[in-house]
Amino acid sequence: MNYLVSLMALSGLVLIFAALPVLVVPLFEDAFTSSAPASVRGLDNHVVLCNYGPREEVLIDELTARGVQYVIIKQDREAADELHAAGYTVMSGDPESDAALKRARLEHADALIANVDDETNPSVLLSAREVDSEVRTVSLTEDPTTADYHRFAGADHVLSPKRILGEQLAGKAIGTFDPEAIEGVEIDEDFDIAEFPLQSGSELIGQTIAESGIFERTGAAIIGVWVRGNFHSPPPPDVRFDARSVLVATGRETELDQLKEMTLFEGWHRRGDVVIAGMGVVGRSVTSSLTDAGFEYTTIDPEDHPTVDVVGDATDRDVLRKADIMDAGTVVLALPDDTAAIFATFAIRELNPRIEIIARANEHENVSKLYRAGADYVLSLAAVSGRMLASIVLDEEILSPGTQLKLIRTTVTDAVGKSLADADIRNRTGCTVVAAERERRVITNPAASFVIESGDELIVAGIDENISRFQSTFV
Length: 475
Known about the structure:
Blueprint: H1 2-23, H2 25-32, E1 47-50, H3 54-65, E2 70-74, H4 77-85, E3 90-92, H5 98-103, E4 111-114, H6 120-131, E5 136-140, H7 147-152, E6 157-159, H8 161-177, E7 185-188, E8 191-197, H9 209-212, H10 214-218, E9 221-227, E10 230-232, E11 245-251, H11 253-263, E12 274-277, H12 281-292, E13 298-301, E14 310-311, H13 317-322, E15 330-333, H14 338-351, E16 356-361, H15 367-373, E17 377-380, H16 381-393, E18 397-398, E19 406-410, H17 420-423, H18 425-429, E20 432-438, E21 441-444, E22 457-462, H19 464-474
Parallel strand pairs: 1-2, 1-4, 2-3, 4-5, 5-6, 12-13, 12-15, 13-14, 15-16, 16-17
Antiparallel strand pairs: 7-8, 8-11, 9-10, 9-11, 18-19, 19-22, 20-21, 20-22
Helix pairs in contact: 3-16, 3-19, 8-12, 8-16
């Protein structure tokens, strides 16, 4: 009898231990797993991101600064797990699936952003409209000619950041030859903010801000300076301008025209001496803008096409020589790969030390690398895309989607009743208040004694991370 009881007890223990892997272990795995979930809970008024990349990274920074929640839907399970482990709000799923969008609580979301690819995005949009016909939808397109299909699928907004980026890069090239073609952002009637790359040989090279006498000679106010990819606001008194410096100034049109003349080196650049490397969407946008402005140019691309003058790799010195890079005044690097752009910058700078290099960066983190390699002016595709998305999703007026510097118009809450000096915005955030709008009247270059009143809209300039700091501190 005792033997039978012992056998039954032993059998019970065996069954319990046998059941542990099936019943108990999964509970601990769920509690401590690094795997991305298949759904989210508790999100409301959030943004559903149907993919993740450098563009979404910039947008997430904007959303986080404003306290807006988000969820990323990632079809690649391994990639979703990596994002989850890194602390992102992410779920695994197919963004084309109604079920996945429901698990992302799309019915409770404020907006959906489709950024998979040009063919998949319309399918995502149709699914989104099936789940919630009222949710705001934004679609990004690589090829601007496909924009109508995205609208037919239900997109409220269709963005083509590459086209915008190409136009901005072309604007910088045109400004090199034509002092009147200042690519500024209008703050008020006859009051702009603009960026001015210094050309090699400019009279400002080697001078400090005080020695230059810019304000006394032109009336333009320098609010910041880019020095080899680092932004300083206000400009440090001991920093001397070099051929990689970019001045950021505010002023009247005539004042900025005079400043532009000081940044040029007359006699080096000649109209028509422009080389464009890379003839994808960005490169074609550059050439379209240059053609409209009446400029001649030489194009380089690995693929033979009627619009390509020199077929080859822009990192190859022989190819660059065929494009007459030694005699060119400006080169626009519109390459789809940042590593290639960095290498091409080294090669071009070696062949022509005085050429102006205007470059596209696909990832924001590579902007500083391109500057260190020798580029004169760099625009980030990720930053342009992220700003355009943030402007729509956050319903904010971002005045400068296509510049190195970000410019926003916003009200503030935590500085009402304080003067600009007391609010200490520049020292606390690195941003500069360039103007304020009160009762439909714009006050430009407000003094330190200017007191912020309820309802005032401040126009604030700064780099992306500093603008995020300003928004989290004062907005």
